[in-house]
Sequence to fold (426 residues):
Amino acid sequence: MKYTPPPTQQSSLPSSQPSTPPSNLKSAPPPTQQSSPPYSQPSTPPSQPSTPPTSQPSTPPSPSSFKVNVEYQNCFSNVYSFGDSSTDTGNGFALGAFKSFTDRAFSKSFYFSSSSGKLQGHRLSNGRLIVDYLCQTLNVPTIQPYKSASLNFSTGVNFAIAGSSCLSSNYFLGNSISYSLMWKQVPTSFITQIEWFNKFLREKEFTMGRLACQAEMEKTLFWVGGIGGNDFARLHGSSIAGRFISEIIVNHISRLLKSVLSRGARYIVVQGLPPAGCTPLDLSLCAPRDRDQSGCSASTNAIISAHNELLQRTLEEFRQQYTGVVISYADTWGAYHYILANYKKYNFEEPFKACCGSDGVYNFDLNSLCGSTGSSTCHDSSKYISWDGVHFTETMNAHIADLFFNQQGYCKPSFGDLIKAKKGSK
Fold:
């Protein structure tokens, strides 16, 4: 299957342009990323972006009527996922990674409500995540978090850890972090997920044999959710260069990819990061003059844009080396910007405010986060893109998942092409 480079992304600030990724893979021409749609410059603070022209897709699905392509059903029987709080369904909670008020928020159902009813596990959203919609798309039961009490991992494992960091624990022990948000001061290392995966595979090989285990891995879909967003958020406004953080993050993703590829992985999807500068968190922290055409933080989005470009170049290097493997890039940046540009079509009324939070222009206050004393929840979360100022609502997750799985241009190569490659290998 021939790889087609994605279209060009919004340009990044010169200071945030990453250097050549530190990798022992052979170099490859860098793919460019999808551009952001044009916006009119809003006044400060932004309230709602002007309504841009609508194009595709057709009427967006609601979370309760998420469209599933029947051709994708039962193509994969196993899913292994990695990532941070945008993918974690319970590991962070099991590890005690959250501050006490977040634990209370879970117990009070701040993070349980869903259009599909109460969910098992603990998610930093008001409902399903993109990985949940992935499982629905493939007709695979929702995969359990690795640290759950369940011993049934017959259809896969979720290794993602909310709040995990690509920086060392020593860094957090030796430095004062301004924005730990809902996570404890010293987060779990992302390396823990790789260690869990290797431990799980060793036990699986002991039970079923190495060759049988490898054969199963060759038929498994590996989903690498957004990684690194936590570190960019924690270090917002710090003197550490964005390109330095990005290189550390991409090195960790590369280490993960090498680990799963060495075990036989052949079908991998890696998510890029969304435009974090559009979140209530960043909008509340950045200066009013720091705005891009969308009304988001220009400085933050320039750093995230450069990070996504570096990640895509690195993925292309892997494709060059592992020619028999499908490695798809899920363009969260492009999907988010398309939805934001068409927010009225998607029935959103508050593209920049948090549903669950407290007083403020963006219903977000660092001293009174979702679930803490004094916070409150909006009446209808389906009208909001952001759930708690940091994470997406279930509705936003559903729309991004729809673009990933059912529309062209948001997974590269497309999710449909990945499915065709899998079916062609049988």
Observations:
- The chain has a mean pLDDT of 82.
